[in-house]
Amino acid sequence: MAEEESRHIQVSFHSSAEKPIPGTEDAVIDVPISADWEKLNTLVNSLATAADDEWKERRFELLIGSTFLRSSLSEFIQENHLDFERVVKIECVDGYDPPQPHLSLNGPDWISSVHVTPSVYIATGFDGSVTVWDKKGEKISQHSREESAVKGAAVLQKPKGAGVGGLRLATGLENGSIWVQEWAADGTVTAVAALKGHARSVEAVRVGVDGTRLISGGFDAHVKVWNLTADASDVHDAPKAKNEKRAREEFVTKTPMVTLAAHSDAIVALEWSPHQKERAFSASWDHSLLQWDLELAGEVSRIRAQRGFTSISVHPSTGLIIGGLTDACPRLYDPRSSEGSFLKQSFIGHKGWVTCVRWTERDDHSFVSSSFDGTVKMWDSRSAKTPVYDISGHEDRVLCCGVGEGAILSGGVDTKVNIFTF
C-alpha cells in the first residue's frame, strides 16, 4: 500500500455535458494510483469548487473507456491492460442514485409482465390473471378472462383518477386470444373487445401513441395490425354469462386489418417506432429484428443477430434499441446505421438468459434488464462491462421488468412483483 501511495499517474477529467465542469478543462493532474472512485470524486468537486464559488457538490460516475471505475486506479489499469505512462482520460457522468426497495407484492402465479401508471401497479400471470394494486400495495382487483396464460400485455388507457377506474388493458393469451378490458372504479372488469386472428400463443402486444392501433405477434410468426376504433367489420357479441349473478357483457369481436409474414419463428417482442407512427419493430426467435412499414405492409430493414431475441425496447428520443437475447448479454442496436454493423455494444454482467429489457425515463443512457440469473440490473449504455447497480430480491428466475413513474418493477417464477424507486 505504501508503494501505491508513493506511485502516481496522470489523469484528466472531462464531461460530455453541455456545460463543462469548472477547473477541469485542459487540466492534467498527478494522483496516487491507489486512488479510487471516492477519492477521485472528491478531487473533481474540489477542483470545481476552487474554480467556481457557486459550485454545488455532485456525485459522478467515472467512466474510463467503456467501463465505470469500481476499484482503485491501480487495479483498474492492471485488469484492463492500460499504460501507466499515459494520461488516463476520465469522463465524469452524473451519478445515479441507488434504487430503493419500495414494495414486494405477491401474485397468484408466475409473473409474465409488469406495468405501472400514476395510480396503480399491474401484473399479468401464467394462470391467466391480471392483478392490480394501488400505490400503497393494496390489492384492488384480480381477474381472469380465460383459463389461459397471459403472455403479453399493454396499457391502452391509464386510470382517469387516483384509483383504477378507466384503466384499459390489452392482454395476449397463450390460446391465441387478445382481450381488451376496462376497469371500473370499484375494480370490476368488463370486456370491450376480443381480437381474433392468431393461430397460436400471443407473446407480445403494443398500442400506438394515439391509441387507435394495436400490433401483436406470437408463436404463429405473424405480426397483426388491429384497428381499435369502431369499424364496419366489428361483430357485436353478448354471450351468456357463465355465472347468472354476473351481468351479461357486450363487446365487439375484431379481425386484423393487416397480417405481416416475414419471420420464420415465434415473435416475442414488438415496439412502435418513436419517430414514424406508421413504422414498428418485431423481434423473433429466428435471430432477426425487423422494421416494418405498416401502411405499405412491407419490411423496411432487418437486423440479424447471433441468437434468438427475447425482448426489445426502443428509446423514445434517440431511437436506439436495447435487445435481450437467449444469452447473458443485453445489446445495443442502431437501426438507422448506414455504416458497418447495426450492433453498437454488448453489455457484460448477467449469468443467465436476458428475459426483458427496458429503457428508463432518467436520461438517454439508462436501461434495466432482467435475467434467468434471478437479478435485475441497471445499466448506463456508455459502460459495457459494468452495470450501474444490481437489484436483488427475487428467489428464482426473473421473467419480466418494467419502468415508469420513477419506479422499476420486476416479476418472475417466485410469483413476486418487486418494486424499487429511483
From TrEMBL:
One Pfam assignment: WD40
Gene3D superfamilies in UniProt: YVTN repeat-like/Quinoprotein amine dehydrogenase
WD repeats, residue ranges: 195-228, 260-302, 347-389
Cell compartments where the protein resides: Nucleus, Nucleolus
Domain NLE: 9-77
Cellular component, GO, one term: nucleolus
Alphabetical keyword list: Nucleus, Repeat, WD repeat
UniProt superkingdom: Eukaryota
Main location: nucleus
Protein name: NLE domain-containing protein
Native organism taxonomy: Eukaryota, Metazoa, Ecdysozoa, Nematoda, Chromadorea
